[in-house]
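Appendix B: complex inputs.
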Amino acid sequence: MTGTEFGLALSVFLACAVEAVEALTIVLAVGFTRGWRSTFIGVGAATALLVATTAALGPALTALPLSVLRVLVGGLLLIFGLQWLRKAILRAAGLKALHDEVAAYESERAAAREAGTTASRFDAYSFTIAFKGVFLEGLEVVFIVLTFGANQHHIALAAAAAAAAVLVVIAAGLIVHAPLARVPENAMKFGVGVMLTSFGMFWGAEGAGARWPGGDGALLAIIPLTLGFALALVAAVRRRTAVDRGQATAPDEDRSTEAVRA
Amino acid sequence: MNRIAALLRFIWDFVVGDDWRIAAGVVVALGATALVADTHPGAWWILPLTVAALLALSVFTAARGR
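Resulting structure:
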């Protein structure tokens, strides 16, 4: 396995694991609250649709000329990667709440209880929530599998990495019988954001006709530099926020000092 | 009509996300790279510079609003 293929597999694995953890929370909440039959049908239907989407779009993407594919894939990976990275930076800097799987689980359970019961064996609520949860979380993974896989002509490797991540998350869910609250989701999202952004820059520039110094080896510099820049932004935002909060509280401190003096 | 609008809204949210300037900046940067690379293949630096500027701009704008 080459370094680029390893990067591809790692990025897809991490992205898929994060999304699978979030989907698992929804499925467990609905399943434990309302029953498993319709929930599993919803999960199965969403999974089948995701697999069909991958199978249908994969060959269409790989049929594109390489330069067109690289510009398209590079651009989309950059847009996606920068959005992931932006949110992860804001979370790491304390400006955006971390995704709380336990809170999400309790909120889904409360909604499932309030939705009322059904006399039929088929519970439309459980089916719809499980289907939507798995399909919407999975759609982003399908996109990453397709873009990474098509560009490297390794859709099978990308799909295998995604499947491995799903299996690991399901196994962990079966073992703990609860949402996976201890998974370091933001660190994983940070990593995925760095990888998507780095590969997006590399392929986007190559597709547009530019040549990187060192060829594929340039990725060995792009990935750590992107990570370093993102970490520097976290530190800068934290510093800036601390200064702003200090200035916001300073007049109060003055007033309290004056009050003490009076 | 409502369903079409909802679908378009979903696609916009899915692809463009919270900050449309990132998507717009990436498209412009790719176009600029293609234009410059036509005569100078060493135009690789345009994307990293743009990405750094876009990310910093987007993060600090979001930070100011919180």
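The radius of gyration of chain A is 22 Å.
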